[in-house]
Amino acid sequence: MLYEQDPSTSLPAVHVVPRGGHTLPSLPYPFCALEPYISRNQLEIHYTKHHAAYVEGLNRAELATVRNWARAQDLAFNGSGHILHSIYWANMSPWGGGQPGGMVAEQINASFGSLDEFRSQFTAAAESARGSGWAILVWQPQWGRLEILTAGRHENLTQWGSIPILVLDVWEHAYYIDYQNRRPDYIRAWWNVVNWADVEYRMRCAMAARVPM
Hints:
The protein is built from seven helices and five strands, in the order ββααααβββααα. The chain is α+β, with helices and mostly antiparallel strands. It has a three-stranded antiparallel beta sheet. A hairpin with a 4-residue loop joins strand 3 and strand 4.
């Protein structure tokens, strides 16, 4: 399900993706745009091979699940992979880096005390994710605050009801061409391309959610 702004209402209009009809989102910049932090080769393979595989797997799983509910694990794995990768690309920009402002800065300070403390905790979460996984900053509407989570693979160890607003892919395929096994170097470089404007947009959309307990 994708959202498009409807000028007649304060809420985004819903665009329904038909079952088995998922496609790769358009990359918002050229493959070379994040250099020197993420190379063209690294980004192109990650996007055209790995993310594309999750989209294909999700489409197959959705069509198969109509006939066989046992494919639900494939839905969770490929669907989560597609969603998180789509956020990951938008969370980065060749004009990224620096510091957040607006609602994101306010909520980071409220939830973590300072931007430096948030960065420290998020970096630690990304570095400590075992094997394949993600570090994820989420808005949790149940308690009205930000949380840092990690996800094993794509879908494990997450928190129900949470809304991702900033994600960092720490599967080896996200950085191995550029950084080999030096995950901390990749994470340190990634901060230079964080698209805080996109995070702000996602933050405001997430805060508009009202989830009853």
